[in-house]
Amino acid sequence: MSRKLTYDSYLFGSAMLIVVVGLVMIYSASAIITVQKVGSENPYYFMTRQCIWLLAGGLVMFALMHVDITRLKDRRVIHLFMGGVLVALVAVLFQTPINGTHRWIVLPLLQLQPSEFAKPAIILFLASFLARREDRINDLTATLLPLGFVLAVFAGLIFLEPDFGTAFTMLLVAAGMIFAAGISWRRVAVFSFALIPAGVALALGAAYRRDRLLTFLNPEADPLGKGFQAMQSLIAIGTGGVRGLGIGNGRQKLFFLPEPHTDFIFSIIGEELGFIGASTLLLLFALLVWRGLRIAQRTEDRWAFYAALGFTLMIAIQTLINVSVALCLLPTKGLPLPLVSYGGSSLVTSLIAIGLLLNLSQQSS
Amino acid sequence: MTLSRRRTILLSAFLAAWGIVVIGRLVQIQIVRHADYVERARRQQERTIALSPTRGSILDSRGRVLAESVSADSVYADPQVISDPARVAKRIAAVAELGLSERQVERLLREDGGFVWIARRIAPGASAALRRMSIPGIYFLEEHRRSYPRGVLASSVIGYVGSDGEGLSGVEHSLNRFIRGRAGKVTVLRDARRATYLVGGEGANRAVDGDSVVLTIDEVVQYIAERALQRAVDRFRATGATAIVMDPADGAILALASFPTFDPNHYRDYPPSQWKNRAVQDLYEPGSTFKIVTASAGLEEGIVTPSQIVDCGMGKISFGNIDIHEHGGNHYGMMTFEDVMVHSSNVGAARVGLALGPERFYRYIHRFGFGQRTGVQLPGEGVGMLRRAEKWSALTNAEVSMGQEIAVTPLQIARAVATVANGGLRVDPRIVDRVVDSGGAVVYRPPAQAPVRVISEKTAAVLNEILKQVVSRGTGQAASLAEQVVAGKTGTAQKPVRGGYSPDKFIASFAGYVPADRPRLVMVVVVDEPKGSQYGGTVAAPIFHEIAESVLRYLGVAPSLPARTVRLGQPMLATFSQRFSSGIDTTAATVEARTGTPDLRGLDARMAISAATRRGLSVRTVGTGLVGSQSPAPGDLVPANHQMVLTLSPRVEATR
């Protein structure tokens, strides 16, 4: 019973601070544009909805903090979860597209993004799988091909939506976990040589991705055209300077930035909170990630190690990709900033990760 | 186990490295290149909007509006926002008041860029109709439209305003600096949809509205003058005409009409040649009206007296192989100088001019203001052309005496005539009375020029009598009025053409003032190339008559001449020329004279001389100003043609 005291309070604290920053910034970024976005006169529209999602996500997190780990290790539970996500990933392809993509399953009161839930599903699967087979990690037929098959199916479906960013994140997390499992450097080299040309082919395969990539390489060539989003994001962040314009005083959210409350919320943070605010937020993430890795390193149980590592990587990699896109270090991808961006599925997924990490922090000592 | 830990540390290092790159990039963008991005943001977020001031009005002397600015909407479009140009064009073109075709609008809406004017300064009805449609991408900007409620009236004085809001001619131009006002500007923040969402408090610089100009022009007098001029132009199929009505006391121009004219509301519909103001911009040879100057100089210098006999050479005076002839082929022999003026003898005038000689004559011409701008605040005023005295030949001297070889503006003639009407004091004409701000406070008043004495009061009075004769029995009879005595001079000038004078193109003019003995109006009428008749007396004098009659009635000037005494009165005036006229008149004057001398005390010289001569008395004056004492005393019986001596003393206050 005394174990409850061993929750990693730094991790919990940093996660909650990040969530609060997120709520404030969602309000700031969306208050003026709600009318145009959703036709609502209520400036709290997006923040209110995010709060409801936070409540739901908080319950999930709370449940995961206290659930018996052995239940989550149960392969039937994992397979059930994976199966459900798989069905959703297939179903989402038959939804009417929103903004030209099939990312959301529209339910009467809410929209779900199955690709978000694919990430914890895959992490739980990998944790279980790698814990059992890490001694045979370099075995092609027993380990790597089955792993590759499962990843290919999930990533492929997400890729079809298309949601390149999430698929990319998921594959990077998986790669990190397999790397940690001790895959030989030779295999790493072989896979790298095989995957990089494939990735380039994919990236250039679709016109919109190619355009994004090319504008990324030279965003200022066409600041009002294809490079618009990247340029607007840089303008927002650059305008912030050291101290920022102050919460609510940003101007770039007024239709200059296309998704100021979701994918480009970091740009608004940079604009309104300045270098001080943006770097503080990044330090909070760093603290969170550090605590997550620390939890992983301290676990006795192999499953727990992989799970902790996987969820930490998920948050870390997604954060870095999102911020890199905002800073024009990576081509534009539709990817939310974990715990901060508006979006229920993303928030719940992130809180699942936090909940599990907190649970696992009890195990380490 | 240890492998996993090592690998995890490697992964951590990878993440840390990525994080450091991100922080480095953050430093680069937010700190190093901060200013650059602020500038970029400012460029796309801020717009400086010029706030145009409202132009001031132009008012007549009684405050009636001649020009004003009314607000009008301008419509512009953001083609980027308009997704269906064809449909939007159809809706806009449906507003018939715009006068735009569907195709025109659609072409505009398909233009590249984010801004295109659809229509500038549209009518209120069209604006309301368009606003009701509330088409996305169609926006409105309040601008000002210049309105001239009286249309063509006084347009050559008022001028017009170009599409950029700057006055381009007339008072609109010459006083643009007052009327324009001061533009302001405001910086507004805009979102990416080009909607203005915030008007910045700082940097806002309110526009200051323009001041209003009050002219000396009286709308009614102007109308009377233009109507009369228009009629004459139509009747004589003239190519142009000018009429100036001026108050000699202060130089205020009550009307200044110029034909052909234009409507400043639609100035583009008229050829630019019609935008000009002939009264100040046209140069012409004044012809015989200029003999007023010749006579002034001759009388002032004592070269001639009205009664002096002048040899008019039987219609000809020769300079080498060039002869100067009389108008209309007249052959005058010996006649008084008064008759030289009354009949407008060229030879007679030339003799006086020659007797003056170039230097003296030039001095008078110059003092009357020829060869110098009047300084009236109208753009493009002509200086005239006056050859320097050193360069005068005898022929030039003679020609100038009769108003040739000299080019003047109608307004310069008006100033010269006003000088005579004013008793010899030259007052420069003015058309701008004052400039007032929106609160009515006077912000500018044209500096009043001190009157310049050109000829003595006595000379002016003598010349006044002569000019009255011109109208009562000479070439200017058509200018006479039933209830007022008119003084003036006709002019008929052949238009100079290459190498001489045109045989069939004339400028007919009349310059005069009324009432002759207490002038309220000085008027100059110039008609360019009348057909059918070319004489100043037949073409211009009737216009003078028409305008003067209406204007005096409008101004409420009391009749100075009872209508029934006109026939008796006119010959009586002739006694000044020492009974040159018929005996009946002389008798009448003699009878009159025996009743006693009039009381002339308190009158100014001109009035006194007029009154005395009316009774057949001649006058000698001593000093200047008002009559202080007279000899013989009032009521004394004297013989006809007795010379009275009037002692003048400086006037205490100016009389009008």
Describe the model.
The complex is a heterodimer of chains A (365) and B (656). Chain A is mostly helical and 365 residues long. Chain A has helices spanning 9-30, 34-38, 45-66, 69-73, 75-92, 114-133, 140-160, 164-180, 185-205, 207-217, 228-240, 265-298, 302-326, 344-363; strands at residues 105-106, 111-112. Chain A is built from 14 helices and 2 strands. A two-stranded antiparallel sheet of chain A has the order 1-2. The two termini of chain A are 14 Å apart. The relative contact order of chain A is 0.16. Chain B has 3 domains: 48-154 and 181-212, Penicillin-binding protein 2a (Domain 2) (Alpha-Beta Complex); 219-555, DD-peptidase/beta-lactamase superfamily (Beta-lactamase), CATH 3.40.710; 583-649, Trypsin Inhibitor V, Chain A, CATH 3.30.10. In chain B, helix 11 (291-300) packs across helix 17 and helix 17 (457-473) packs across helix 21.
Number of domains of chain A: 1
Radius of gyration of chain B over alpha carbons?
36 Å
| CATH architecture assignment name of the largest domain in chain B | 3-Layer(aba) Sandwich
CATH fold category name of the largest domain in chain B? Beta-lactamase
Judging from the principal axes of the Cα atoms, what is the shape of chain B? elongated
What is the succession of H and E elements of chain A? HHHHHEEHHHHHHHHH
Give the low-pLDDT segments of chain A. Answer: 1-5
Number of domains of chain B: 3
Pick out its properties:
heterodimer; A: mainly alpha; two-stranded antiparallel sheet; 14 helices; B: Penicillin-binding protein 2a (Domain 2); Beta-lactamase; Trypsin Inhibitor V, Chain A; 3 domains; five-stranded antiparallel beta sheet; 21 helices; 35% helix; elongated; disordered C terminus
